[in-house]
Structure formats: C-alpha cells, structure tokens
Write a structure and sequence with these properties.
Number of domains: 2
Largest sheet: 6 strands, antiparallel
Shape: elongated
Strand order of the largest sheet: 13-14-6-5-12-15
Structural class: alpha+beta
Length: about 240
C-alpha cells in the first residue's frame, strides 16, 4: 500500500499548506485591503483497506477579490476603491499595487502609504501637497483638489489601475501585490474619500475551515497509522511462517 501512504502523505502536505493560509488570513483579518486566499484542490479516489478514500491534489491559489467592508474614518487622505482597481505605490523594488488606502503625508508633503511608499498619480509621479493646502477634496475619478492661496486648484489625480486577471497578482506582504503583466487604467473603480476598505476575511468562516482541515489531517494520520499497524502485523506473520 505504498501508493496509498504516499497519497495520504501528500494530502497531509496539502492540508498543512491550507492551514498555513487560513492562519495567514486570520492574521490579516484587520489589515485594510487584504484579500483572503485559499488553495484550490481537486480530488482523486484511491484504494485503501476496507474501501476507498478521496485524496486531494493541489491545483492553484484562489484569491477572493470581493470588496471588504468600508469604514468611514473622517481623514480626508484616506481612500477606498469601490469596485475593481488598485492604488499604485513606488517601492525600492519597483511599483506595487494595493487596496489599502490609509494614506498620509510625509515630511516632504508627499502622499504615502502606511509603509511610507509614495502614492503615484495616473501619470506615474508622486503626489505632493503644500503645507498651506486646505479643503482637500478627492473625486470618484481620483482627482485631488485643494484650496491653495485662496484658490481651488487641481493637485493631481490618484492612479487607479487594474489587471486582466487580478487573482494572478503575487502578494508580497499584507495587502501589497506585484504584477507580472502591465497594469491598465481601471474603468469601473470609484475612489471614495474618507473611507478605508477593510479586509474581506470572514473570521468565523476561517475558524470553521481551520477545524475542518484539522479533522481531515487527523483522519489522514489515522490512515497512515492503520497502514503501519497492518504492515507490522504482516511482517510478524511472515516471520513466524518462515521460522
């Protein structure tokens, strides 16, 4: 029953990976803009003593791109995207993409992410405000207008981009992603000022999933232990027979 043991061990490896992903989801349940993830698994049936059992095979990562809930903050620099799209930030490793719009101004007046990365405009440039700018207003198209020296002026437009298949983005940390394909302007995403999109993790669902994964892992372990006991008994019988 070597094939059965190998398949069951493979299942345990898959379940361990799934458990890691559930734990990561729960750890980021309070991370703005975070998208929950899970490994898609297909099933095959193998023969085991006393019948058959469904054993999983890994397929691909599944990422839930549904909007999280929106929390009003009262901070005029906080932004959320309603619908599809990502903000663009400049990191030391290149452009990265995020749904976390909890922005602020740094000492130079640049609009930056919580990690201090400059938020880029639709033209790919950092956005800088003046210390005396007031009445900051951000339109649903990302246009920033401020009152500067008594006059309402355009201070730039927040870049909002999207991808053909956002689930293929590679997460580098929390709600920060990198892309392997060029971004395109987001056509349907709307920028909402004064709000932050929360994580779309449903903690109760993740805990339920964790319990189920643990149950299946223990069931797989019992299969391995039963097969080990059967092999030991077979060896004992064989030893007595040849003695």
């Amino acid at each position: 029953m070597l094939d059965a043991n190998l398949s069951t061990l493979q299942l345990q490896m898959i379940l361990t990976r799934q458990m890691d992903m559930v734990a990561d989801n729960l750890a980021n349940a309070s991370t703005p803009g975070f998208k929950s993830e899970m490994m898609a698994v297909s099933a095959k049936r193998i023969r085991l003593p006393g019948g058959s059992e469904l054993i999983g095979q890994p397929m691909a990562l599944e990422r839930n791109m549904d909007d999280g809930s929106f929390t009003q903050t009262g901070n005029p620099l906080d932004m959320a995207i309603k619908g599809a799209g990502f903000f663009v930030v400049q990191t030391p490793l290149g452009e990265r993409y995020t749904r976390n719009g909890h922005f602020q101004l740094d000492a130079q007046g640049q609009l930056v992410s919580p990690a201090g990365y400059p938020v880029l405009s639709e033209g790919g440039q950092p956005i800088t405000l003046q210390p005396t700018d007031t009445d900051i207003a951000i339109g649903q198209d990302g246009t920033i207008s401020v009152r500067r020296n008594g006059t309402q002026v355009n201070a730039g437009t927040i870049g909002v981009v999207n991808f053909g298949d956002p689930t293929k983005l590679q997460r580098v940390s929390g709600s920060l992603f990198r892309a392997t394909e060029p971004p395109q302007p987001a056509e349907n995403g709307r920028v909402i000022q004064g709000m932050v999109e929360e994580s779309n993790v449903v903690s109760v669902a993740e805990i339920t999933r964790m319990i189920d994964i643990n149950r299946r892992f223990q069931a797989a372990q019992r299969i391995i232990e039963a097969e080990s006991d059967r092999s030991q008994k077979a060896m004992q019988v064989l030893t007595k027979t040849t003695a």
